[in-house]
Automatic annotation (TrEMBL), chains A, B:
It comes from the Eukaryota. The keyword Phosphoprotein does not apply. The keyword Cell membrane applies. It holds the Pfam family CBS. This is Chloride channel protein. One of its GO terms (molecular function) is antiporter activity. Proton-coupled chloride transporter. Functions as antiport system and exchanges chloride ions against protons. Important for normal acidification of the endosome lumen. May play an important role in renal tubular function. The CLC channel family contains both chloride channels and proton-coupled anion transporters that exchange chloride or another anion for protons. The absence of conserved gating glutamate residues is typical for family members that function as channels. PROSITE patterns: CBS. It is found in: Cell membrane; Endosome membrane; Golgi apparatus membrane; Membrane. It comes from Canis lupus dingo (dingo). It catalyses: 2 chloride(in) + H(+)(out) = 2 chloride(out) + H(+)(in). Residues 1-17 have a biased composition (Polar residues).
Amino acid sequence: MDNRGFQQGSLNSFRSSSSDEDLMDIPGTAMDFSMRDDVPPLDGEIEGKDKSYNGGGIGSSNRMMDFLEEPIPGVGTYDDFNTIDWVREKSRDRDRHREITNKSKESTWALIHSVSDAFSGWLLMLLIGLLSGSLAGLIDISAHWMTDLKEGICTEGFWFNHEHCCWNSEHVTFEDRDKCPEWNSWSQLIISTDEGAFAYIVNYFMYVLWALLFAFLAVSLVKVFAPYACGSGIPEIKTILSGFIIRGYLGKWTLIIKTITLVLAVSSGLSLGKEGPLVHVACCCGNILCHCFNKYRKNEAKRREVTTHGLNSLSFGESLSGTTLGMRIWGLYVSYYFPLKTLWRSFFAALVAAFTLRSINPFGNSRLVLFYVEFHTPWHLFELVPFILLGIFGGLWGALFIRTNIAWCRKRKTTQLGKYPVIEVLVVTAITAILAFPNEYTRMSTSELISELFNDCGLLDSSKLCDYENRFNTSKGGELPDRPAGVGVYSAMWQLALTLILKIVITIFTFGMKIPSGLFIPSMAVGAIAGRLLGVGMEQLAYYHHDWAIFNSWCSQGADCITPGLYAMVGAAACLGGVTRMTVSLVVIMFELTGGLEYIVPLMAAAMTSKWVADALGREGIYDAHIRLNGYPFLEAKEEFAHKTLAMDVMKPRRNDPLLTVLTQDSMTVEDVETVISETTYSGFPVVVSRESQRLVGFVLRRDLIISIENARKKQDGVVSTSIIYFTEHSPPMPPYTPPTLKLRNILDLSPFTVTDLTPMEIVVDIFRKLGLRQCLVTHNGRLLGIITKKDVLKHIAQMANQDPDSILFN
Amino acid sequence: MDNRGFQQGSLNSFRSSSSDEDLMDIPGTAMDFSMRDDVPPLDGEIEGKDKSYNGGGIGSSNRMMDFLEEPIPGVGTYDDFNTIDWVREKSRDRDRHREITNKSKESTWALIHSVSDAFSGWLLMLLIGLLSGSLAGLIDISAHWMTDLKEGICTEGFWFNHEHCCWNSEHVTFEDRDKCPEWNSWSQLIISTDEGAFAYIVNYFMYVLWALLFAFLAVSLVKVFAPYACGSGIPEIKTILSGFIIRGYLGKWTLIIKTITLVLAVSSGLSLGKEGPLVHVACCCGNILCHCFNKYRKNEAKRREVTTHGLNSLSFGESLSGTTLGMRIWGLYVSYYFPLKTLWRSFFAALVAAFTLRSINPFGNSRLVLFYVEFHTPWHLFELVPFILLGIFGGLWGALFIRTNIAWCRKRKTTQLGKYPVIEVLVVTAITAILAFPNEYTRMSTSELISELFNDCGLLDSSKLCDYENRFNTSKGGELPDRPAGVGVYSAMWQLALTLILKIVITIFTFGMKIPSGLFIPSMAVGAIAGRLLGVGMEQLAYYHHDWAIFNSWCSQGADCITPGLYAMVGAAACLGGVTRMTVSLVVIMFELTGGLEYIVPLMAAAMTSKWVADALGREGIYDAHIRLNGYPFLEAKEEFAHKTLAMDVMKPRRNDPLLTVLTQDSMTVEDVETVISETTYSGFPVVVSRESQRLVGFVLRRDLIISIENARKKQDGVVSTSIIYFTEHSPPMPPYTPPTLKLRNILDLSPFTVTDLTPMEIVVDIFRKLGLRQCLVTHNGRLLGIITKKDVLKHIAQMANQDPDSILFN
């Protein structure tokens, strides 16, 4: 985490270099798979990195290589942009645990160590809950305040936001809760009036100015200090949690910068949400706090577990404290990833986060009420038609959004556009702010807009959306019947329609810019607006034409037939489903929100239609599409591999290629091995009994091999180029005056996974997915034949799906 | 499913025979593992069984064995009491799917077939939802009616239950909702009065008589028609879903008999619940309806998927329609088992089931209200002490219950007791009924009792539990303050204490008898009673001693400090957690029921304490304990294997044993193979290149081998004992006049799983668990060394946990 300077440009530079290699160095045609496992070259920086990851220096390593107690530093760690080996990491954790348990019987000190080790998990959860809860609370409060800052300032104290400012004012009437003398718009401050065209222009100008300032600050901070802080972070987190390594992506600089820039980005009024970036922030908390505990610092698998806890803690925590709806959905989406055993801990961290959040932000509580809507009117079977229409809209919008957004992002990556992120952000912000200010629905924050759209009009609602005629006529039973729309509703409809168009267009260009940006809130807003428009339309249709055949059986005059708020909710679910394709969790959440069996069918109908429509136009959700765009090695857990290919079709070497590069267990010298290492770029080598028999003994990683040989040459007396490397348990007695041997059995993985060459690829994919493998060896009748890496599997899947196999960049 | 007669006794007879083998035939010591994979002997019944499972007869098989298009019937099926191979089953389904998809391009008919195949899943779900929903509704209504039948009968119509009977009566007052002239107790019918000691005795007598009659009918039906219908069925279903085969366990006879006897058992007043058996009923529905669809009938893995849908449909469905709480918890417990993709279908089936259930049983709706309690009083930090006490009670009770119940069940299996199930049931019923009648809390149905205990006393509650002094004094704000208990409450306390003792004792003997019996409701009742007792105690303590230091800071006089209903709920969660050890889902559910963040900490504290206490006294939940008691091969998904053993320590043959029995790929005659088959009982044989090289080619199943050879001898011209069996792709040209060869490559599994002998067992266990393997071959440096079966793994786990490894009976 301390070589931030190195990381800044590394993602891009490395990416381009490895793809160049893929295209240039291969003798075969473009159709042929890349022969290499793209390992970044080992340079001088490795030792520095290892130190920070291992805690110990090289000097402490043992001189007796034969009875090596302490592992050589660096052995067992990973390079940046590589995939971890879940099996190895889990084994290491279990070894560690066993060792501590065994030692605990020896002394009191060891016993205390053992207890504290067991307890550290809970302490870590407590810290994660506290940290992520506080950060979420801070972000919430600051974003609120800064959003209001664009419109004016509180004279009572500049640190009050609009709501707070008028909270304690005595001059507030119930009707105009938002207006109080303590709150001054910019025009009041500058030209001492809030009336007239000039005041409007001053406010307009200040609004745009603040937006540009916030956006500029956000993009500059991201660009200078933490390039990984941009975007939602979800594609990368999905990949990292599945076992990929991106150093610094969950580091402290990313955390700090992302927290600050998230507030700025949200306040700037751009069409983005804070849910995705908040997930990234929570994951950073989890990952950083891991470094305080030995147990977690050294184990990549354990770290990923804790990171998930961080994620869950914020998701559950926010949902418990009722802050945002989106987080809740996120929690469900990810929680099925890690074993059930650890759910307790997530839950605990979530509780802590929720309490922290509540105590920091006491007004967060009221949001629960905003989003929690209880509808009472039953829906009619006929209404399924508009609900399904909303589903189709959601699916179409989702597919369209993914396509255009990915196309735009690709353009950003490949053309000059990507070189001017600051200008891009400023232009988009300027357009958004200039178009947003005149329309009250675009000017208000998007989550406020959504809650207003979800809301069913009550007796006391003063919003324009509820400006019906005969507002105060209740039917028997106190229900508000369907009523003709008033002027307010009509003007609201127009404004909402304009808002819809703006949101649809601008979100495409916003998501993926070099600032933190989430997608939940904009998607839901699009759906909710469309739903509300349709809902009000249906309501008016039913009111004016209740004698039509489709209405007259169930909607008599003066009854409350149609609930526009429900339409908004259904629309939001449909759009969210279309973009993210996570339909089940969505329906469950929406079901909980509406709190009844009644509305599950509309929600389900819309969400399923949306998913089907969107799937028909493109298989991937937005996050998977971004994962593919970036070429990350992510093996989708759900997707079944449906083609009838065999392991031998995927393994390397291919039929016309030279033989597989192997090491023998007892006949190669240090020099031979070093030649193999320098002539190839494979990330590991199988070790066999002899080249003739090709009987597999084990697998050794390139990185471990290099470090061990280097180490042996430095420390071990007399290891020279002609020393023979033994991977066997006992080396034979040597005649005197031969150079000393180098025993490397300790770095040999003695249980490599093997499959036969006739194993169907569907089984191989299943093994890779379920066991989290990095590579798998292929045998035929007991002879070693080839190797399949995770990258090969991903390339094969891409090829079978008629996608470009070279889009998979990393191993 | 049609050889019911055979199945009746088979479970027991087979079980004893195989364990005898284990003890007698092994040359090594008792510590040594059994060498054999206990395969039941192949007898004449196999063909009959296969026919019913394959749909085709043997006569249809192809004469050209070399170019076998159609598989030999029987190849690819499993014996009873064996474990399926998930990898093979899934591959088969994918092959099938691919074939249909490919064919669909050829003709319109094939296209229709393909579409209907894709659609059949949804149709199946619809049917499952309808069937399981109807059955659940029927069971509910009948059990209600028959429970009331024990007390009296409705003169308006004998088919009305008590509530129904008085529903339409005009003579009912609000205070005495239960008393109406239309409802006649047995004493009123027989001696025309309801008063006096004699009437009481008549009612008492009739109550016991009906209970005995119901119990007798239930146990007789189970004994005669469907022995698998007894118990809760959950241990067996867990095992079956994990891939074990018990023919008839989910068959139509089991379904019919279990449905009928469940009603009888519940009505008889025994201390049992209907949730577990309902799950079994739903699974039967799923499994039986599978037989209507080709896609599902032939594939064991697919069938299991559908069975889970059946299970989920009922669980979710009931929870949606609000019938029972227990089902809801069940749904969560099992839903993490199968891939997320299929959750949609479960959900759909659940919706259908919920609607069916609602339309059948319109009064089921009111139950939701019974269990849904909204508490408003906040709890105080000090109250965590009683909550944790409840947790300890729950844990202790759970552990005690599991121990005594398992000990009693073991006694039933091993002694004479097991031979007289009818007498046992009658005795327990008689004791329960005789002790239950005088006490109103034992006389009412257990779910009614629980809802009464959960309920917080309102102004209008007329129950004895709410008989406080100053009943109608409300504090400011309309709250009911803590009040001194009246006579009713004191007598209720005594009766509840007696109920608690009775339930604790009698449930131990009830669960496991030869009638359908669930455990959710009795466990919750025990916890709820204990909780309510403690709650009322705390309430009175706080009322009379509000000046004590622990109370006076938060509980002023006249305030509503303590909610006894909350204590009941916490107690129920603790006891349920102690018995089943499924704490997380429990808390989530209870959290939903109470509907607020407020009560999640009490519930969590109690559930966690309960789990820790119970785990300290015994690792297993009740279902896992029963699985182990019955020796089923169930590999727990959560439990981590923490010992540092290697594959070579577990594999067979052991060091001193004779070599592994293998077949060679091209040098053994039919006679050689038949000798191997008759001399061993292994369920499969590895095929190697030659005995000298021990290079692995593949794995062939004993069952497939026997069927294929038998088939070849019957159908293929000239295959005799000296024919050579070839497992290779091409057999070499033979000199004339040698007997024709037999090619068996088509039954050879060419992609057997292998691990090296140095693979840690934790990884092996992980592979078995995640991939659903049946066996795995062990190699050393490319040479075949041994084999590990699922049974070996389970035995090894049992041995490492200091349990009897011979308790694992099946493979």
